[in-house]
Structures are given as structure tokens and as C-alpha cells.
């Protein structure tokens, strides 16, 4: 019977810092790839893939900030909001493939160490760290402005920690000649990245399968709606997610027949929208309710639930 729409606009100010951080991160990735091929360092190779993954995250954040200002069309009623989900799924699949390779190669190098050019490895690690610090400086002032910027800041911070680990391995190799330090650091970076990648993969698949978003208890929402005055039943309740921060709710609400006689059905609708928009930790601003009289329920199909 009614729908309620609020858009939380991504500020235009977010795009500048995100674009700058993305350019720096891509530059760091290019330099680290060159460094990995030059030095033969597995840790530097894995860290460069880590940087590429975070660059993809920054690109998605920038894309979301740009696409969010584009109006919906009759063909794409949600615009391009779900593009970030598809990109994240591809990103996770790519990183898992590379991660599997590096973990296998890391174990092999623990058994049979290979020489790496440690002094050059320090240089490329330091260049990566400098780039990460520059990107952090760009994002630091605005990092609380939007969810995108907060996530981007954490991505670049992870990159910086990876660069520190690469430098530490290179210093150990330079001082002691212990080549296994490179493989150990690569495995440690993998241990940090792969669980996050699996989490990202699971979250994107959940969105595509239209699962109930994380942080929302469907039965709690149902029970809370059912306790509203004049509400007699709640069925066909679905809560899905279009993209990051965009949950959507639809439901059939059975109300007292008196609501149609005294005109209070609209007041019930207002209560429903306030309930799902303000009561729960995850606010659901996009909702559609079908208000039904008690006598309508038997006319619905047996597929309702």
C-alpha cells in the first residue's frame, strides 16, 4: 500500500580523496610488481596483489560515490547500485586464486628457499610504504565523512602494514641471510588477506542470493511489527539488500477491518515505516507494505509465508 524512500547521498567531497588515493595505490602496485619480478620476492608479490585488491576496493568506493548521484531510469530502477557487488565478487575470486598460488609457493619455498635481492626489496618496500602513507594523509581528514571513506582508509592502512612486513623480511634477510623470512612473510600476509577475501565472497554471494542482510534478524522484525496496535498478522516478509547500505523490505500486513472504516490504515502505515526505519540497529528506509483486511488472507496463494 505504501513505500518509503530515503537516499543517503554520498557527498561530492568524498570523490576527491578517493580518486587521489586510488591513483597513488595503483602507482604503488605497478612499482611493487616491478620490484617482485626484479627481486624474486614472494612476499613483495603477494603484497602487490594485496595492494591491487585494495585498489579495486577504492575504485568501487569511488564508483559508488559517482554512480550514487546518477538518477534511476525506467530500465534500471536502482541505477547501477549492484555493480559494486559484481565487482567485489570478481575481486574476491581473483584474490583467492592468487592467494592459493602464493600459499602453495610459500610452503615450497620454506622447504627449498630461493635467493631474493634483499637490498632492492627494502627499496621497493619503502616506496610502497611511502605511497601508502601519502594515501592515508589524503583520506585521514575525511575518513569519517562517509562509510566509503572509512572503509577506504582501513584498506590503505592494511597496505601500509603489508609494506612494513615486506621491509622487515628484507632486513632480516640482509642481516642474517635467512631466505625463509620472505616465504614466512608471504604466508603471514596470506593469513591476513584470505579470511577477509572469504568473508567478502560470502557477503557478495549472500546479496546475489537475496539473503537477509547481516545485522538484521528477520523474526525479530516480524515480531516487532506484529506487536503494533491493530496489526493482526505479518506474512510475505522479505528483507534483501541491493548494495552496500541499501536494505529493502517488503511485507503483507493484516490489520483490523476497523482500520478501513475509521480511516486509520494510513496511520498504521506511518507506524510501520517508523518502526523499520528507526527501531533497529540497521535502518531500513526502502520499504513497501501491502495493508490487507483480515478477510483478504484466504484469497492469497498457498505460497505466502
Q: What this model shows, in words?
A:
With 305 residues, the chain is of the alpha+beta class. 62% of the residues lie in helices and 11% in strands. The chain contains nine helices and four strands, in the order E-H-H-H-H-H-H-H-E-E-H-H-E. The protein has helices spanning 15-39, 42-67, 83-111, 118-140, 147-176, 180-208, 218-226, 258-262, 265-278; strands spanning 2-4, 231-243, 246-255, 286-293. A four-stranded mixed β-sheet has the order 1-4-3-2. Strand 2 and strand 3 form a beta hairpin. Helix 1 packs antiparallel against helix 2 (42-67), helix 4 runs antiparallel to helix 5 and helix 5 (147-176) runs antiparallel to helix 6. The longest helix has 30 residues, at 147-176. It is elongated, with a radius of gyration of 25 Å. The two termini are 18 Å apart. Mean pLDDT is 79; it is low at 1-11.
Brief descriptors of the model:
4 strands, elongated, alpha+beta, 305 residues, 9 helices, disordered N terminus, four-stranded mixed sheet, single chain
Compact summary:
This protein is an alpha+beta fold. The chain has helices at residues 15-39, 42-67, 83-111, 118-140, 147-176, 180-208, 218-226, 258-262, 265-278, and strands at 2-4, 231-243, 246-255, 286-293.
Strand order of the largest sheet: 1-4-3-2
What coarse outline follows from CA principal-axis ratios? elongated
The total of beta strands comes to 4
Mean pLDDT: 79
The number of helical segments is: 9
Helix content: 55-70%
Structural class: alpha+beta
Task: Give the termini separation.
Answer: 18 Å
Which band does the percent of strand residues land in?
Answer: 5-15%
The helix/strand series, from N terminus to C terminus, equals: EHHHHHHHEEHHE
* Rg over CA atoms: 25 Å
Uncertain stretches of 5 or more adjacent residues:
1-11
**Biggest sheet layout:** 4 strands, mixed
